[in-house]
Design goal:
The longest helix has 21 residues. The protein is mainly beta. It has eight helices and 33 strands. Strand 16 and strand 17 form a beta hairpin. The protein has a single domain, classed as Maltoporin, Chain A, CATH 2.40.170.20. One of its GO terms (biological process) is siderophore transmembrane transport. One of its GO terms (molecular function) is heme transmembrane transporter activity. This is Hemoglobin/transferrin/lactoferrin receptor protein.
Amino acid sequence: MMEQACSTFVLVACTLSLSVHSAQAQSSKTKDGEDAETLDPIVVTGAADNKDTIAQSEISSDLIDRTQSATIPGLLSSLPGIELIGNSRVQGQSINIMGFGDSEDIEITIDGAQKSFEKYQQGSVFIDPELLKVIDITKGTFSAEKYGAFGGSVEMTTKAASDMLRDGQSYGAFAKVGFASNGNELVKSAATYARSEEQGFEVLIAGTHRSNDDYSVAGNDEELALSAGNLLTGHFKASLEREDHFFELSGIHSYSDDYKPWAARRGLITASDWSLNKYGSFDEYLKTQAVDREMKDTSISGTYEYNPDSELIDLEFEVSYSKTAQHDTRRVPVTDPDYSAGLYVGGDDSTLDYSIYKLDLKNTSVFNWGDFENTLKYGVQLRHEVRDSMAFKKSYVGRPEYNDGRLQPYNIPSGTQTIWSAWGEYTLGYGALELTPGLRYDYIHSKGEANLATKYNNPAMNHDYGTVERFGFSPSISAVYSLTPNIKLFGDYAYKLRAPLIDEFYDVGSTRATATQLQNERVSAKRIGVASTFKDVLLENDTVKARVAVYRNDVSNNIYRLLSENSKKYDDPVPTYGNLAGYYTQGFEAELYYDSERFFGSIAFSRMQGKHDGTLKDVDASTDQYVSEVAPTKLVLSLGYKVPEADIAFGWKGRFVDEQVKVPDNYTSLYSPSKGYAVHDVFLTWTPQEGRFAGLEARASIENLFNKNYRPYFADGAAPDKGINFKSSVSYKF
């Protein structure tokens, strides 16, 4: 019933928005390039100018400040088709887009630097949102410029001096303090910045410290053990502009050292009577479940742009480096001094470093032939990823087959992967139609690092850490058609590849072989939709933006751990991973945003489904298995009111989520069936623009207003989400 009601409600709303203004389209004064208006303070759709932005969503710094979210996945989860994976522990959160929940399926960048972390049951992005100017979200993999990223991309841009300076300032400073009642969370931020118009130079230096105690879960006073944390983040950004040349250098570094579950996504931690008797107390038992975890996350990027007075040259060169380093150390229970953790969970001490070096050179050429408008974008890319893994297990000391306990975990191999790529997109514009075919070529070179332990480096078991090469073309085509000046139709198709990861090639075991036989995974992605922008709808100078889209992704040769009947298709020793028969995901999304001088609001709806060909245990099974990464039906509503004369805005947001019972068996799914729920938030902001308080921003909100006890589908384990949370912040620009 809820699914039908939600679908009908959104479709009616969007249809009304489109139909009411079809007749007004010819008299509208809105120009084609002016529909990128910022709707404050809600998420907005991208500009309906071209195929790159028509299906894009944007989260501005205003929305980041209002929500006071501690994580990027938490910020994105209000968008249709996007969900947070994990629970309230910051280090255990990642992103699911359109049914793709693996880290390799979502491309995440910060100022162009690629972020990636694929360790089992960990988060994928650890940037503090306080330092961000904007987040651009593109769903799907329809751009020839992108490698893989079947689910989409999340591009984060940090703040620069020009974003912080008040009118007329050449230098300034910023200070902010925020508090949240749940977990006694405290956030302190400061920045200093300067700009010289004459020299074309600007610089910003900023820092943020975030700390919290254990969070309380919804509906009761129970705490989510090991969710307390401290995160210190520093950021700098400098740029220089000289006539046709622009240079920018940006860097960000975060550090934390906390006591965490080895599997950061883990839910509530409970101890049996047997465990309590053995270890004497719950705190002693926790030592067998948790680690002292030191996390360092670094990104550095440099950009050079050359844009002379020529339509044929708009050159951009990016170079970046990013590294995520995790060091885990086990504590020893007093009652069990010989305790030694399993190697599959890192042993007694482990390190894992992910480093990515990236070069990106591209150019845009514009040339017209009569009535045809032509744009050619093309470029070359180089991405080099290094994974360095090491562990120590004290119970293996004295055992040479395990190298006396110093070895790489068999399920977290070390290695390198280098991707050389060339791509191009040609946009042909004629009248109301814009057509963009694209083509991409990738050559992927992978090489494992031989395990120090002969137990996992045994040629007789087909443990092969040698070089593997994969390559292929990825064609795509997109179209945008202006039905009227206010309504545009769009459609996309792409046939993209993703090569196997280091983890998938070289994950072994005492009875399992490396999987150097793996072939590229492919997706055939399709999408059609309509986007519209109208002004002067209900009130003078108001704006309505609407977007509706349907999509389908058919994945072939999907890579998965070989289980049961699927493993019997191989001779012994069986490789750890194999290519399966494939699966599909498909869905419907609708968005409607309204903004006026006083009123604002939004509707966002998404519904999806998906099935495997056969099952993850048996591709020849007669019954197809549901895809566990498919999110439940979701409706997010917001409504607010602005008082311009007092610079005040306040409002409400409701999140209504249906049950999810179409789940495969627990052995092939991390997620168990979930019930439907509704959660309500309210907020208030005061941002005076003039007078003695100009430069001040005061914000307050209440999340989970009624302390609803609920568990999101993608929250691993049985942990309810965070309980009622009072948030407030005050900032000032000097």
